[in-house]
Amino acid sequence: MAHQPMGARLAIGTTAPDFTLPATDGKEYSFARHKGAKGTVVVFACNHCPYVKAYDQRINDAAREFMPKGIMFFVINANDEKNYPDDSFAKMKEKAIQYKLPYPYLRDATQKVATDYGAGCTPEVFCFDAAGKLCYTGRVDDNMEDLGAVKQRYLWDACTALVVGTKPKLQEVHPIGCSIKWSR
Description:
The protein has 184 residues and is of the alpha/beta class.
């Protein structure tokens, strides 16, 4: 478990840094052009991390629930693929097909976006309101090991607040996961 960002972590109320990244579906996506009408969720994740694997289905379920309600989801893999070949773009494409990912799965090969966001681990969630201002950052929920024991659904609570136009009750929860695998 680590949170070792290369850049300063975004503060609540900060405008989302824009990006343009390639996705596993063959398209390019940018925050500015593809953000959601009610809000946007950016999750830093990867293929190999056991924390991400534990949360994959929950992230997919949240995207399937909230994307039709105006919340856009982007999942970004910034890990060094040279030392972590399971996180290569080719392996990302395989994962996208195998799991029928409902959101764009983006590759941050230069790690600039992860640095701009101050992301340090996987999975790490950043939720932005309709104006692109950060309103929640942290974990998906409070129990990676047992879905039935989850008491706080941070990502769902944040998305629900965005859909109705309010601020999430909790705005920041310390993320827990594998450190992003920096190439520098």
